[in-house]
Amino acid sequence: MWEWITKWAFHIHLIMAISWIGGSVFMFVLGITLRDKKAQQEVYPHVGPIFGWFEVVALILLLSTGFIMGINFHLFEIMLHPNGSPISNALQMKVILVAILTVATVIHFIIAYKTNGRERTPIQQFLSRGSSLLIFFLNLFVMHYAIVLRNIL
């Protein structure tokens, strides 16, 4: 049973990463191009919740499959006992970035969920846009370290 799970973990992880990053890029482009406040108020209340819940499911699957692959490839041993090797360094960076990405996603999701269809306070607006921008750029760095790790493994 474990072999079947580990075999599919990589594929599920890859599909979710593609979906996560692709969706992030789409929402980033949407945010940049929709400058009209009325257009934003028409689009975001419909698109936002769909993407937000998909994002939660994708994040749970990414973290779960990452954990499974960490066990399968003995990455936790490397992470807990870093030795300065390329795999150790890449793994540490990816885990740190994923932790920050997860926190930014939770912050963004909570604000978006609570304020969907309503006017945001200036601090909510700042945190929402800031976390969204942070998520976008962190995705690119996480993807880089995922490629580095995959090339090593």
Structural overview:
The protein has 153 residues and is mainly alpha-helical. The chain has one domain. The chain has helices at residues 2-33, 37-72, 75-80, 86-115, 122-152. It is elongated.
Keywords:
mainly alpha
Summary of the model, kept short:
This protein has 153 residues and is mainly alpha-helical. It has five helices and no strands.
Class inferred from helices and paired strands: mainly alpha
**Helix and strand element order:** HHHHH
Into which percentage range does the β-strand content fall?
under 5%
Oligomer: single chain
Low-confidence stretches: none
Main β sheet profile: none
Total separate domains: 1
Strand and helix map with partners:
Elements (H helix, E strand, L loop, with lengths): L1 H32 L3 H36 L2 H6 L5 H30 L6 H31 L1
Helix pairs in contact: 1-2, 1-5, 2-4, 4-5
Protein name: Copper resistance protein D domain-containing protein
Organism: Sulfurovum lithotrophicum
Keywords: Membrane, Transmembrane, Transmembrane helix
